[in-house]
């Protein structure tokens, strides 16, 4: 992706400066425990498009929570043998299209520059968790992100117009997906921010996130996802201390960091 060309499916919106207001308990529908339990029971298979550090960490937690996982990457299922062997009988490797079709919920965890290759048809109607971050040195310059008229997850949503994208897992270092996971009710259980435009999809994502060891913290629509993107206070450094050790994050700390977010042009 050379230069600063717009992606053909990228949405545009005007820039509106708004102060972060944490959603109320009523607005955070994902906090309804009974609903989450019902949603969780309806999901048995997680498809993963991408099996790098984040994808592998999510897969490990999913298998530990009792899910089947179908893994894929850009190099072909034959390259995933070691990971499948590590994960055991509840894991299998497939193409991206096959993983998308198999998953009750699908995680897209590939470089942002590659989202145009995400299969559209098998994801129609499904909840899709997006872990993407924008790194221009890797992804090339993307005009809509450089001028901040869109966000990474809104780009994926535009590519998947009949899917329901939820932004999650993008702001935590992959190692801490394992080391910070805790059972429900544990006083050191951490929260993970989620953003999305569909309440049912956010409930599905929250149920899965809950099963793998975290509480989902709904911050609002996809457009608010910029608040925990690269280099901002609610990004990866939030989950470790000055010595590099894992640090639990509660809702109050996350909300404080989200409120400190500034647009890149203002930094």
Q: What is the string of helix and strand elements?
A: HEHEHEHEEHHHEHEHEH
Say what the CATH topology is.
Rossmann fold
Per CATH, which architecture? 3-Layer(aba) Sandwich
Give the strand content: 5-15%
Number of domains: 1
Count of alpha and pi helical runs: 10
The oligomeric status of these chains comes to single chain
The parts where pLDDT drops under 50 for at least 5 residues are: 1-6
- The end-to-end span amounts to 26 Å
Q: What structural class is derived from the secondary structure elements?
A: alpha/beta
CATH class: Alpha Beta
Output mean pLDDT. Answer: 90
Number of strands: 8
Radius of gyration: 17 Å
Q: What overall form do the CA principal axes indicate?
A: globular
Looking at CATH, the homologous superfamily is NAD(P)-binding Rossmann-like Domain
Pfam families: F420_oxidored
Keywords: Oxidoreductase
Protein name: NAD(P)-binding domain-containing protein
Domain Pyrroline-5-carboxylate reductase catalytic N-terminal: 45-134
Topology diagram in text:
Layout: H1 33-42, E1 45-49, H2 53-64, E2 68-72, H3 81-87, E3 91-93, H4 96-102, E4 105-108, E5 127-130, H5 136-139, H6 143-146, H7 152-159, E6 164-167, H8 174-179, E7 191-196, H9 199-211, E8 215-218, H10 251-259
Parallel strand pairs: 1-2, 1-4, 2-3, 4-5, 5-6, 7-8
Antiparallel strand pairs: 6-7
Helix pairs in contact: 1-9
